[in-house]
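haha ok so turns out i had the wrong file open the whole time. this is the CORRECT one, sorry everyone. sequence first:
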Amino acid sequence: MPMPQRALILGAAAALALLGSSAVPAQAAHSAEAEDSRQDSFTFGVIGDVPYGAAQFDRFPQMVSELNNQDELRFVTHVGDIKAGSAQCTDEYFAAIRAQFDRFEAPLVYTPGDNEWVDCHRLNNGAYDPLERLDALREMFFATPGKTLGGNMPVKSAADQGLPENVTFSEQRIAFSVVNVQGSNNSLLPWSGLGQTEPNQAQLAEVDARTAADVAQLEHTFADATRTNARAVVIMTQADMFDPYMLTQGVEENPELVSGFRSIVETIAAGSQAYGGPVYIINGDSHIYNDDSPLAEGSPWLDVYDVDHVPNLRRVTVEGAATSNEWLRVTVAPEASTSSDVLSWQRVPYSS
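then structure:
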């Protein structure tokens, strides 16, 4: 074979070899991009107001097992009320729920509800001192601040302020802030089961201290989200501060019915406006699934709380209570997504 032709063939082979070698990294880069896309999109589960009543209590282990079978869940949040409002607030009951919480394979973030401490003054609850029950909850469920229940996930706890249940954490540039805000007007209703017709001083002191810590945490969450250019802020509470039922009970004429939430809502409104990105509230308490924008222009809640409209705030209430048979699967969109919705969710029925 003449030398020039051989050189031509060898040159072409070398070029093909070079092309082939460059194609492998490109393919690998494509796979890496796909992997990155999968990594910055994730899902988590939310439950609340469960278990309610003996039948649901008996089914609760199966519910936990079903959630454990959802391999894609980064974590699960329980937004409070681990028993019905008429059930006893006993240590034995709390221990039984803690045993089920320990079975969660995904990290479990839990914020207490009013049924397990605020309303324990009721005679059918055992006429407990609510503050004693709050201490018992903290000792049983939050003995190791900064550590989730179930699987382990690092969270920053407000234990130094006396609220180990208040936590913040970040996942894929989503800022999460879990705050202890209670139903029963944030625990301002009188403890009638103990013979009281007005809130007592110890009760008021607890509300003031807890609310001040909640406000400080929320302010820090928004400031940090702005500083780090977080993709969204997600606030989780037990209380439904925009309960549609309250609109039928004259709250527009008597805003004092929700006075315990005022400083919290003012902080969320101001923080959302300053931050400017998507803000989501996920709560339980009112039992009926709801998806709305409670501080949108024209909302009656603007006058109730005397705040300006907040177009970037969206809220979802998790379905709960004795007749509920579902959980909420929340999906966080990848950063490359062109959708304006950073979070989306699906109501998922339990199969058992």
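The CA atoms of residues 54 and 322 lie 9 Å apart.
again sry for the mixup
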